Input
Amino acid sequence: MRQRTVSRFPLFLVFGSMPSMKAILVGASLSWMLWGCGAPSPGPEAKPVSDGVGQGEVVPAPPAPPDPAASASVATAEPVSAPTVAPEASPPGWQPIPAKRPKGFPGVPFAEVRAFAFDLENGARPICSGPLDEDGTLCSTVARPGVKLSAEQAKKLVALVQQKSSFGGGSKCFLPHHGFVFYDEAGVPVADISVCFMCEMATSTPSIPAARPSGEGGGSVGISEKGVTALRALCNELGLPKCDAKKPNDFGLPPP
Output
């Protein structure tokens, strides 16, 4: 019977010494643990890192710097000037109103009468001596559009200026702020009256036969107490401003 031969090759040469094997096993275990507990490697599903704005919120990009070319074009652009206002033209068919008419005042047919206030912010020498300029346009300080008189009010005004009792007295001053303009059917002025309630004086074109010239020049005439009362009442009835003003300080710019 054949006997089995047992190798006499030392076991420690095959497996090594026991302490070395333990070190290998411990090292392998630690490597496995570190690999399992470590941070996952970034992959396609990784989310963007937040900077504190909000969890997972994407921070907007900063605004783009201004375009120097665009800024230069704005800086060098020409300023836009305000449109110029064309001067007011005389009404079509306008003819200067004569100083006197054979049939008195207004001396011709009229279709409408308007009351106006002017120089309301001027307490010194008049800028406008009446509602009309010499070319038939309204004077520069006249408050537009004025107030149209009713047929009854126009009739009352004409009757008032045709009475001699409406005139007389007066003073040396003349600071008018109210007036009346008579228009024909085409809207062309045919007569006007300018009134100063403070000085109790008036002027008109054409002249009023019933009025007595004051002798102060300029065609002004004195208005009697009766005439002033009646004209002032009509002024207030029409709603014109400052009909009851007594002194120049009642006009002028309002205090700041």
